[in-house]
Structures are given as structure tokens and as C-alpha cells.
Amino acid sequence: MITTSNDARIYRGSVLKKPLRKAVLPVAGLGTRFLPATKAMPKEMLPVVDRPLVQYAIDEAREAGIDQFCLITGRGKDSLIDYFDVAFELETTLRERNKLALLETLEPSSIEAGSLAAVRQQEPLGLGHAIWCARSFIGDDPFAILLPDDIIKGGRGCLSQLVDVYNETGGNVVAVTEVPRDYTNRYGILDVGQDDGRTVEVKGLVEKPDPSVAPSNLSIIGRYILRPEIMTHLSKLERGAGGEVQLTDAMAKLIGDMPFHGLRYEGTRYDCGDKAGFLEAQIAFAIDRPDLGPAVKAFLRKYI
Ligand code: G1P
Question: Is pTM beyond 0.90 here?
């Protein structure tokens, strides 16, 4: 296990080990990379096989023990809230027609009354600003962030793996992966302290550095567990890379005050914010499905 600083140990002795029950899902983005498909529907409602992107994030959060959710939405994104509501007519019709298997497919999209909050990010000022919009929902609790663009396929869910580390170390934990050096300007990049090959101590963080100055090629992907103290830094609404309020900059300010670790998670990440990544996710998930796999493998051979 990685040791932490004295400050961090004092911190560990005090407020630590509040269980993680809350998750924030930023879904306010305009989805410009998928226009025109996203002109009139949220990007997060695009399906991978037959489930919308946002459903994958909710499933992963639930597996990790989360039972309170907050969507950070924007104008034109209300269908995301409808998706998690009761679909009274549809459900009644399916029940009357005895289509019980179809009815069952709706179950993951139901969230208990009072367990889903939605906040509007009124202006697109960056990921840090989006998270700050959830401050009333977060209060004094630790929370997870899941960016629905990233889908991680594998055995144990990525967020569950982060929870394991959080339960050991407390503080902040982010999912990390090595990216090609040329890509550092697309991600939050770690300055790495102690590293046991799986868990790394975070010494510094930089948002989208040029490859020539990037402190490593270890990047943050869209899964975080953060302490509520992040809101103090976010509330300053300081602009960073790209003129946006960056979550990474606020996280960097927590380093030294409390433990901060990155986890090289197990699983394959698909960047569904990118067209090629989105298509690859379709294939990867479809091939694994008993009802679709054989047909998909057969037709793929025709194209290769
Ligand atoms: C955001 C974060 C970045 C992180 C990335 C993961 O960037 O700002 O630090 O590495 O998500 O997908 P975005 O993809 O919104 O530009």
C-alpha cells in the first residue's frame, strides 16, 4: 500500500470513511461531435446496442453501492429525466399484453422516487462548473463522478474498483490509464509519486498539457471519487485550459491536504464521445451478447 503524507494521516484519523452513496453525472454537453444525430436528442441517450450511454453509467454506479444520483443537465436534455421516470402508458400496455420479458428490460431505467436529482448547468463553462452546480446535492458527503461518454467493459465495474481503493486510503481516487504521449493534450494528466504498478500517488495534475511539457502519459478517465472539499476550490470559478472552469485544476489544489490516488483499473475503456470509439463499443458489446454475437461475427467477416 502506498503511504501518504503526515497531513493526510491526520486527515485519515478524522473525517474519513463516510460511505460513498452519491454520484454526479454531467450530461449538459452539446454533443457536437455527433451532429446532426444530437440536434434534437441528448448524446447520452445514444444507444450502445440497445441501452443508452447514461444507463451504463447508472448500472456501474449502482454496482458500486451508489443509491443517490444527480444529473447535471442543460436545455434540451429533459428526455434524460423522462428516461428514468415511470413510463406509465408503456408499462401498462406491456403488462396488459403479458409482454413480461419486455417489461423487465425497463427495470434498470427506474430510479426510486426521490433518489434522482437534476440540476441545470445554465451556461457551458466547463466540467468544473458542472460539478459545482451539484454542490447542494453533495453537501458534506464524498461523491462519485461518472462521465457517461466513457464506458468501461470488464468484470468488476471500474467504480467498484475505485471504491476498494477509497475504502483503504480515503481522500480522492481517480481512474487512470496510460495514453500515447501525443494524446496528453486531450486529458487530465498525472504527476506521479509512489507507484506500485496498480495504485499511484498523485503528486500533481495538469489539464490537457502539451506532450512536450506533460509530467507523464498517465491520464484521468471519466471516473472519480472526490471529497466535498473540492467545492471550496470550484466555487472560485477560476478559468483554466480552454478558458473553462476545470475540475482538474480544483482537484490539484486538494493534493497535500488529503490522500490522492490514481488507480490503473482493470477493464477496457471505450471513448463513446468519439465516433470510432462509439462504433467499437457497439461491436464489443454486441459480440458478447448471446442473442446477437453469432450474427454480428458472421456479418463482420464480410467487411474485413
Ligand atoms: C474531461 C476532463 C479530463 C479527463 C477527461 C476524461 O475532459 O477534463 O481531465 O481526462 O474528461 O474523459 P473532456 O473529455 O471533457 O475534454
Answer: yes
